[in-house]
From TrEMBL:
<dbReference type="InterPro" id="IPR036688">
    <property type="entry name" value="MoeA_C_domain_IV_sf"/>
</dbReference>
<keyword id="KW-0808">Transferase</keyword>
<protein>
    <recommendedName>
        <fullName>Molybdopterin molybdenumtransferase</fullName>
        <ecNumber>2.10.1.1</ecNumber>
    </recommendedName>
</protein>
<dbReference type="GO" id="GO:0061599">
    <property type="term" value="F:molybdopterin molybdotransferase activity"/>
</dbReference>
<dbReference type="InterPro" id="IPR038987">
    <property type="entry name" value="MoeA-like"/>
</dbReference>
<dbReference type="Pfam" id="PF03453">
    <property type="entry name" value="MoeA_N"/>
</dbReference>
<feature type="domain" description="MoaB/Mog">
    <location>
        <begin position="186"/>
        <end position="328"/>
    </location>
</feature>
<dbReference type="InterPro" id="IPR005111">
    <property type="entry name" value="MoeA_C_domain_IV"/>
</dbReference>
<comment type="pathway">
    <text>Cofactor biosynthesis; molybdopterin biosynthesis.</text>
</comment>
<comment type="similarity">
    <text>Belongs to the MoeA family.</text>
</comment>
<comment type="function">
    <text>Catalyzes the insertion of molybdate into adenylated molybdopterin with the concomitant release of AMP.</text>
</comment>
<dbReference type="Pfam" id="PF00994">
    <property type="entry name" value="MoCF_biosynth"/>
</dbReference>
<dbReference type="InterPro" id="IPR008284">
    <property type="entry name" value="MoCF_biosynth_CS"/>
</dbReference>
<dbReference type="Pfam" id="PF03454">
    <property type="entry name" value="MoeA_C"/>
</dbReference>
<dbReference type="InterPro" id="IPR005110">
    <property type="entry name" value="MoeA_linker/N"/>
</dbReference>
<dbReference type="InterPro" id="IPR036135">
    <property type="entry name" value="MoeA_linker/N_sf"/>
</dbReference>
<keyword id="KW-0500">Molybdenum</keyword>
Amino acid sequence: MSCATLAKGLLDLDVARARLIAAAEPLSGEEVVAVERARGRVLASDVVAHLDMPGVDNSAMDGYALRSAELAAAGDAGLPVALRVPAGAEVAALPEGGCARIFTGAPVPEGADCVIPQERVTRGAAGHIHVSGEARAGANVRRRGEEYRAGERLLSAGTRLDAAALAMLASQGFAEVAVRPRLKVALLSTGDELIELGIPYESGRVYNSNRVMLRALLEAAHCQVVDLGIVADTPAALHDALATARDGSDLVLCTGGVSVGEEDHVRPVLERLGGLVFHGVAIKPGKPFAFGYLDDGSPEGVPLIGLPGNPVASLVGWQLLALPFVHGCQGRAVGPLERFPVRAGFARRGAPGRTELVRVVLDWQGGHPVAHLAGGQGSHMLRAASQAHGYLLMAADTDVEEGHEYPYLPGGQFHD
Ligand SMILES: Nc1nc2c(c(=O)[nH]1)N[C@H]1C(S)=C(S)[C@@H](COP(=O)(O)OP(=O)(O)OC[C@H]3O[C@@H](n4cnc5c(N)ncnc54)[C@H](O)[C@@H]3O)O[C@H]1N2
Ligand code: MOO
């Protein structure tokens, strides 16, 4: 069946994402860090090349550099080897009528117009080279500036620096780079049932796994975490903890107590301390997601994101909603969710009124991907979440039919 009607009072996923992305204010200021330590950081300004790339005409092969016309004119006599040019040598001039032994990356001598790979060369008794096949002018020469010229823009402000971008900065000799400041995020967990690691287990208690998960996610997103631990489940304790958390923070992130029961204090305290912007998104898991501002409740206040207590709901809320907000605050460009169609290898009833994010693994054995359930789909079931490759995105009220295609969200897009 497919008659997607959202549950009453809940925001559509795309609308909630768009509102969070629009609300994200990029942090001002910048800090200069060593290129070696800049992985994952966000560029504060455009980077312009100051060297041509490559810096000199150089060889793409181990072989012999020569003038193609001279090789043709020499015929069976071949050409004598007049020079040896290793990588790192200065640019030399090729003597007329001779060739140069050359290595990959070494500067092509002035006058030479091509490099013949050594596999196509034999050395005669006199040491002359003989070439099989043609010598085409320009072959195997990487021209100075063929990739880009000094003065061209290499990277734009807002780019997240991955290994290839860092390598490019290093190839220009940049030792340092100006990046956006790290987002300072205060993290707190609510729930009187929670116990920290190292405490002996007692029936009914729950280890604080969200704290470990969210710390890991925040650190992977290059945030600076101020971990405030567990807050007692009372409005007064939460009020005081949030008031402490907002001081000096760019964002307050809390888990649990965000639903509708009388033990769930996040929403009422947020309403009292500042302003609730929205509460409840039509996704499963992750429905009781709250967004608002502490202090005066305006965008000048400190933003607060309340994630659900159920661990998988908390994970999904982070990935789909909190992470794009964090990226926006980091000055990163935030695009739409990456998705592609994947066939389902299972059948399943749709979720009433909510878009469902079904945790799946992909089987590629038949040459094209088929999605299978990664395990139990309860929002408290971390095992499937930990094994899933991504999510099958099921529109509200839509049953999964085996063999049909549905949008698949690869999990890799949430990793950094
Ligand atoms: N009457 C209703 N009940 C519930 C609704 C609803 O709409 N009406 N929504 C359900 C949904 S959906 C979710 S998700 C949960 C989320 O509730 P809360 O955010 O208020 O979370 P808690 O009640 O505090 O805890 C829920 C669950 O998660 C465990 N938990 C909490 N914090 C942690 C943590 N840090 N580490 C590990 N596990 C944690 C907690 O023990 C509970 O089992 O509400 C439904 N209820
Ligand atoms: O949003 Mo809740 O995660 O459906 O259990």
